Amino acid sequence: MIAEQMREQVKNSSVIRAMFEEGKRLAEIYGSENVFDFSLGNPNVAPPEAVKEAILEIINSEEAMNIHGYMNNSGYEEVRRAIANSINQKFGTDFTQDNIVMTVGAAGGLNVIFKTLLNPEDEVITFAPFFGEYRNYVSNYQAKLLTVSPNTLDFQPHLEEFQDKISPKTKAVIINSPNNPTGVIYSEATIIKLASILRAKQKEFNSHIYLISDEPYRELAYDNIEVPYLTKYYENTIVAYSFSKSLSLPGERIGYLLIPPSVSDYENVLAASNIATRILGFVNAPSLFQRVIARCLEAKVDIDTYNRNRELLYQSLLSFGYECIKPQGAFYLFVKTPIEDDLEFCQRAKQKKILLVPGTSFGCPGYVRIAYCVAYQTIEKALPGFKELINECK
Amino acid sequence: MIAEQMREQVKNSSVIRAMFEEGKRLAEIYGSENVFDFSLGNPNVAPPEAVKEAILEIINSEEAMNIHGYMNNSGYEEVRRAIANSINQKFGTDFTQDNIVMTVGAAGGLNVIFKTLLNPEDEVITFAPFFGEYRNYVSNYQAKLLTVSPNTLDFQPHLEEFQDKISPKTKAVIINSPNNPTGVIYSEATIIKLASILRAKQKEFNSHIYLISDEPYRELAYDNIEVPYLTKYYENTIVAYSFSKSLSLPGERIGYLLIPPSVSDYENVLAASNIATRILGFVNAPSLFQRVIARCLEAKVDIDTYNRNRELLYQSLLSFGYECIKPQGAFYLFVKTPIEDDLEFCQRAKQKKILLVPGTSFGCPGYVRIAYCVAYQTIEKALPGFKELINECK
Whole-model pTM? Predict the structure, then answer.
């Protein structure tokens, strides 16, 4: 009696649930300390102390009515102003509170902007490997997700194929850098080419193509690599940001959309985003956490912890003979499987009590994602298993 | 360049925004203390002290990682267990944590259940007057909202007309009691008849019709009137609850869906609700506030404050000659306009610096909604204006 579309979803998700249940079963048998779960992108580094301080300060000094009440669907003006100022300081931009719509995380933000933009049968393009939920977010609005095949050389996007896939139906392109699942940061050269292709295609088709930049991992960039700020390269850019990873607050569902004045049909995009926030049932981003993040915009989680994990795992896997691009950001390693079938490899890994996600889930078979947002010790203890795994594949 | 459907939304909302802007303009000219805003359903009674205590206790005693992290999309197990136990104690039911899906308020919950249930072209029935957002929530999933005309005698639903509107396409019925905008509580007799009609129609059409009970105002019932708990009357009932009004936390977006084991296709409805929570972009209900409400399930806002407002406004308006059903719950009065045109009446009210919402917005022209969740003094100061208004209409 549930919706047809959801029947399909339930069927698929039961496969994932089976994997999850298997992990739980293993933990029960061998103890959770002997099961190495690299399957979840759940931050393991604590939120900065500033978060707790902000909560206490707000709760102890402000009126409860003001902390927990309704506000404009776009969010508190002073919060949006603080965010705009912070972006301007970091990137030399010139945004105001009017360009910010507070959202229920980046997932909420992406749904709001897709609801705002997409007509049924519109096309959205993304680059494999990509976060699998994009498929759902796009189909929620009866639009179609087209994917560009992975460039396994360096996981920068395949721009020639991209160019060929753009049609008059292309309404949006969604990119994610630092990338889940590769950890790759799209280079400035990539962004410049991407922008120039988009501009040319807009002209060719007399259309408007929005570039949606999904940025939950922006602050997780290693070795001081700069992550280009896309509004400076392409005028039709909209940013979906989340504090889930930058402040380790994934459960609180807090993020924002940045909608620059330069985007096509700006006034309507802004007004419609505000309305979409309401009618999709979000109504507004959680009120206390709007105030909290406004006080923590310069705070950061300790990314050295992730970096130590990255180095240990990357160097060890290389030494065992695995092939892998060194991630520049996020907390994932995307590793070529020593056998072709990534699902089979995940099964074998599970026998070593190592839980991984197959690349197939990201539109890139023949790889696995290892989420290294785990305790250092978990990696250390899992390394012998990784070594055995590759040796058994030889 | 925005979606066609959203273009329509932006056009309509600019009318409401114009009203809002006018209110702001009046406040600037006359001072906000001399503008009487009865247009918003925003609680003016502070959250119970237990909310603050719960926040402090959680923040000071638990690990930040546990407070703000991801959990199952349905929410924390212990929170869901606490809610199920609390419902069982109050209503003699027998639910478990498995029957609860935590949601981003009732608005989020309604979207999750509609996404779960509705195929395009399915029909959902509701009773006028009704919360206007239902129209959007249903059309988000390409389904159709059918409305039963208002029964202005006592604002209990027109059950004969309802019966005639049920078709094989009817997938759900949504009711809201205590009602926004009338404040009426659907009587047990009404519920029993409604349930019997639904059962007969299910049999006639060999179909499954879900009764969605939207209950943000359940705890706001006056004079110890009991609000029937619908799962006891009709096995295909799903409850969408919110803590926005019961704990005055509208900005925090916290509520739940109750999905009893008795509903048709139970396992799938439950699994699909969990998935819908994820793919609609909610991901989960805000984590800290899940924990907070679990500690405040027996706390209540001071409804005496609302009750004093209700008595003052109701008695005064009657004495001026207005016609109105005495509300039994919520914080709204739904008043017959002394002239036929409710939009024109709202315009005239604005000239007295009184801001109201026309009944037309709720599918019931010829009435206005007065939200009395305002300071007592605001009502006192507005009364002369209400008196002048009706006298000028004579």
Answer: 0.97
